UniProtKB/TrEMBL annotation:
Pfam family, one: HTH_IclR
UniProt cross-references to InterPro entries, sorted A to Z: GAF-like_dom_sf (IPR029016), HTH_MetabolicPath_Reg (IPR050707), Tscrpt_reg_IclR_C (IPR014757), Tscrpt_reg_IclR_N (IPR005471), WH-like_DNA-bd_sf (IPR036388), WH_DNA-bd_sf (IPR036390)
Name this protein carries in UniProt: Glycerol operon regulatory protein
Start and end residues of each HTH iclR-type domain: 1-58
Organism: Streptomyces acidicola
Entry keyword set: Activator, DNA-binding, Glycerol metabolism, Transcription, Transcription regulation
Biological processes, Gene Ontology terms: glycerol metabolic process; negative regulation of DNA-templated transcription
Gene3D superfamilies, alphabetized: 3.30.450.40, Winged helix-like DNA-binding domain superfamily/Winged helix DNA-binding domain (1.10.10.10)
Domain IclR-ED span(s) in chain numbering: 59-241
PANTHER family: HELIX-TURN-HELIX TRANSCRIPTIONAL REGULATOR, ICLR FAMILY, HTH-TYPE TRANSCRIPTIONAL REPRESSOR ALLR
GO molecular function annotation: DNA binding; DNA-binding transcription factor activity
Function: May be an activator protein for the gylABX operon.
Length: 241
């Protein structure tokens, strides 16, 4: 296994491919051993051979892509955990993808727990700050399609009452303004979401706080927005996770 990995690394280092003899030297392997491993790796799809030169195959590229995604996911998790600690609130990262609200990552702690998903988060976008922020970024057709599939309904006594009232609210949200909801999804909880500009994908970062800390909500949201501005390039990479 170790020798096969050395060969794969040797191939990856040769942008324009390399013959077996060169790869054997690069990997520090005897030529017969290198030939055997190259044949096996080619058969398994990790390499492909063209005119006597070896290149990375589809299987190796899939591994590389998966590893890059894991690294990006880890990077985003670390960033959210850092913000959770300095802001003192759970931090959420969500996107709108293929017609659905997807919470991609949450950083919370025993002292600052995330909101419990007691009603399906995807179906109740009208009732929480994450969903409202994402819906506010959609075009009229995409938003209408979403609300046709997931109609506005009361989740708590504070939930927006109908689609007309929701549309009025969403249309009044400023381009980079935090979206705030108070006890609309979960009683005793207030939330704020920050819209993200990441290509054509609607995305958001959000925080939640217990109701008795509601006076902290907007200052904490502004702090999160400042932090996002410093690391937007890093976050943009995460759009594919």
């Amino acid at each position: 296994m170790q020798r096969a990995m050395r060969l794969l690394e040797a191939v990856a280092a040769r942008q324009y491919g390399a013959p077996a003899k060169q790869l054997a030297r690069d990997a520090g392997l005897a030529l017969p051993t290198a030939y055997h491993l190259l044949r096996t790796l080619t058969h398994e799809g990790y390499l492909h051979r063209d005119k006597g030169l070896f290149f990375l195959g589809e299987a190796a590229e899939r591994l590389s892509s998966s590893g890059a995604q894991q690294k990006r996911r880890s990077t985003v998790s670390d960033v959210l955990a850092h913000w959770r600690d300095i802001i003192g609130a759970p931090v959420y990262y969500a996107v709108y993808r293929e017609g659905e609200i997807e919470v991609m990552c949450v950083a919370d702690s025993p002292g600052n727990p995330a909101v419990e998903e007691w009603a399906d988060f995807r179906e109740t976008g009208h009732a929480h700050a994450v969903g409202q922020c994402l819906l506010s970024q959609l075009g009229e057709e995409a938003r209408s399609d979403h609300l046709d599939r997931y109609p506005v309904r009361a989740i708590t006594p504070y939930t927006v009452r109908d689609e007309q009232a929701l549309s009025w609210r969403l249309n009044r949200i400023g381009r980079m303004e935090p979206v705030v909801e108070r006890q609309e999804y979960a009683l005793g909880t207030v939330c704020a979401a920050i819209p993200l500009t990441l290509g054509t994908t609607a995305a958001t970062m959000a925080i939640s706080l217990p109701l008795h800390q509601s006076d902290r909500l907007l200052p904490a949201a502004r702090q999160l927005q400042d932090e996002i501005g410093r690391l937007l390039g890093t976050l943009a990479l995460s759009i594919s996770i």
